[in-house]
Fold each of these.
Amino acid sequence: MRWHRQRGEGPLLRWGRRHGRALEAATGGPAKCCHPEERTHDHMTKCAICNSETASPKTIPVRMTAITAGEDLRMETNEAHLRALDMAVHLLGHINAFRALSEVPDYLGRRRARYAMTLIMLDELTSLMELMKECERAVTERSPEVLVKGFFSPEHKQERAQRALDEIGKSEALFLKVKRTLGREPSAIDFALFKDRLRQMDGNVFSTVERALRYDWSLGGDSLPSDEEIDMLFMAIELNVRGAAEFAYQWAMANEFDIDFRLATVNSKDGCDGRKERGYWVTMPL
């Protein structure tokens, strides 16, 4: 099967590029830099991530409110961006956990635990992608609020998960990363096995996780994905979560929200994808 590459970095990174232009239009000027540690040496006033001018942030009160009922998600646009940042940081914690599970090879339960972890991350990423798309729409249309119909509805989960798998597999950055990791071009990155499993469980990720983790008394359960398939899905998730975190953070800083931390990575031994430079994600005080 021929694999078609889609130019770009992934749906959430492409979202960030478009969203940055909308942010600039909405705030009346270029986005203010949120990555002071990334400024290039030859242009000390430029950020190497967002290529924007730096500025000293001021703070305005934007708070997240508890959501306890209903199938739809409705909130003020600024709060929705903070929610997206909060979800992305939460997912970076899952990425750290996956890396820790992957540090030591060939122990009992390694593949099973990693598979379950990728399914949980996929479920969270699906919701994050829906939220960020609606954030983009709200900014483009200058809407004061974000509305996501059926955001908490179990009936929509399978459709959203299938769509997310289709989108995250079409990134050129993912293709190059997988090629670098495997040492060869992948024949396909379509996540077909994961789509089939979700179909069997009607999109219920946690039923799939439970089935993967529990002992199978029937001795006829589904086989686990290969380590290579699990790693490819993890790489796709990591690329998109990182993009979501960086651009949601950029939005918050450009709009002068009260953010008291920055995202960074600490070095460690090589993780599952052999990239020392990424390390483990941490939050550090400003």
Amino acid sequence: MPTDMKKIKIKLHCYECGEVIKKNEEYITLEVYDSPFDETSKTIHLHIENNISDHYRISCEEALYDEQWADFRYLDCPICKRTIVRQCPTNGWHSYVRDYDDEEICLSCYEQIIIKDGIARERFEAGKLDGMFFNEQDLKDAGYAMVADMENFYVRTNGDVEKYCSEALKYIDDGYLVVTEYEHMAIGGLEGYQTMWIKHKDSLCESFHHPEALPIIEKIMGGIRHGK
């Protein structure tokens, strides 16, 4: 999210085009994160109201978010209000973004939501294998237990998907929250191993939350529960 906009006073370089921001050129300063799980941001500067290319007439500020311009673009997460890179800069493929309630949110906020309320029943009914790579200790601390028969469950065919989702729905019908931990997944998540974790809704155990995200997550989840 923008934190400052002012006339140039010191020698700075634009994060996108790499050029020195000249005297009297307008720029914007952002605090961005190269992982949704980072606690420390980095400061970048971007030209505004310029053209980053003669062939692609968007500003350097717009290019930061434009996936048609380049890989490793950024997202303004609507929950935690942070500007976060969309995919892991280290391995190049691990997505830091999830679709939730018809909008894109960062992986950290998604993790907090599903640990708190589990994966939505509708996703399993639709045959979707939503999940993520968890720190197992975080799941244990939140009161979840591994389902032994669904540990390292191999998913390759539609039949595998149906079996996994059917088991998840049975647990949900019995009053459990269900989350899916990815173990070893192919790029794109179409094949690989995953593990099911469950927690009974009656059990009381606090999960961890990003301090800035908690009030907003509570508001979102409250609205969903009341059909808003």
Amino acid sequence: MRTFYSFLLVLLLSQPALAAQPQLLLDVARFRNTDTSVKGNVVEIYATVPGQWLTYMRRAPKMYQAAVTLTLEIVRPNGQAAYQEIITLKPPVLSDTTAAIKNSLSFQKRLVLPDGTYSIRGLVRDQYRGSQQALVELPLVLASTDTKPMLSDVVLLAKPAARGAEASNFSRGGFSLTRAPGGVYARGADKLWLYTELYNAAPEQEVQLRYRLRQTGSKTDALATSGATRGLPGRPTPIATELDLSKLPPGDYTLTVEVRTAKQLLATQSALIRRAPAEYAPPGAAAPTR
């Protein structure tokens, strides 16, 4: 009988700490390719899997490990894959799986694709519960221009863009970027930082920048502010700023960035954000510190 109880105890301890359905956040940003020897557009895919949705398997006393398989694809209209990759991601080992906040998993890919229409597919599967998976599909349209001023996609950041960054998948325009997964600004995130690039601006031309936040369903802006920058000769003009969210109520918002002269609108770009001060959100990944 004692042997049976010992066997039952070992069996229970080896069972995984079950979680709910896994979740996948996919963020995509399009940039102009500054390498003139290679035709196409730069596309960045940033995938985040929140840790609280994962299943943790006991590996040793007070040591629990989770793992997921992430499949990323970019598919052409004819069904052919322009890009495909399968990645295994594992968070740090936990000693206590009852903690409300767990480490999220992140993966970022930067690649060059020609103009065209595509679909991005992301599939995440819990390795310890094969039936638990999440699929996300997003449209992707790439169209480059050589003459008119234009903005890249707006990258929403969890921290200020830091100057002096080494070249990596986490840096652009000399800035280190820590992305805000899913554009979610949750508990403790009272500031929004952003990064975008202005192309085809006349060198040394001063342009006005306007930033507007409007809540979904509203006809007026909840927040509006302005700035200025000058076009850089021979390269994109990086734009980085911060917005104070502390006085905004929870909800979904559209962030609009405008580039103007005194008389006309030169370029505009928008992004969706969600302010959720009562929730926890997965932290953004950044380049490892040395």
Amino acid sequence: MNLTLIWTGFIILISVLEELDKRHFVLFGGSMFYFIYLYNQLKPISLSSKLVLLLFNIPTLVFWYIGFVYNDFLSINPVSSKVFVSWLFIYLYLTLYFFNSLPNE
């Protein structure tokens, strides 16, 4: 819980700073990742395989949404929306299959 509050404060601090350039953004981001590394060394977090699978799905679904919305703009030969949705259903089916096949920890 403490790490979540610290991470949220970090994101708010970065968004409030008006004169934030690329160098300072990389510096602040690197310091936050180093802080998370040190925090994990002091209090190791054990995550179950199911939780790791669910956490990896969040960025994947965000990238899928960006690809779906900007499909015509991003690619030379755009894929039809039916194919994109079918890929999503296949991906979700495989994710649910692996989620149910993993042991409870």
